[in-house]
Each structure stands twice: as C-alpha cells, then as structure tokens.
Fold:
Amino acid sequence: MVGGAGLNISMFRFSARYVLGLSNISEIPEQDKWKNQALQFSVGVAF
Structure:
C-alpha cells in the first residue's frame, strides 16, 4: 500500500509518501511478522 501527498508552491515541489508492504518477509515461522516499510521525502524545482 502507498499513500502520499504533494505540494506545489510557486516553482518549488514538495512531496512525501509512506510505503507499507503487505507480505510477511520473515522466513522464521515462530517470529512476529515482518513487513517492508519506507518513508520517502522529495524536494524539487520546476524550470
């Protein structure tokens, strides 16, 4: 799953998103479930 937002102010661009994996990536059967997670930020300038 992915969720995020972007903001354009004049010529500047800002965005952020959160990524959550839905699959268990752990190969250890008696452990808690492990899932991929990421938080990403970006800043840009439009020409």
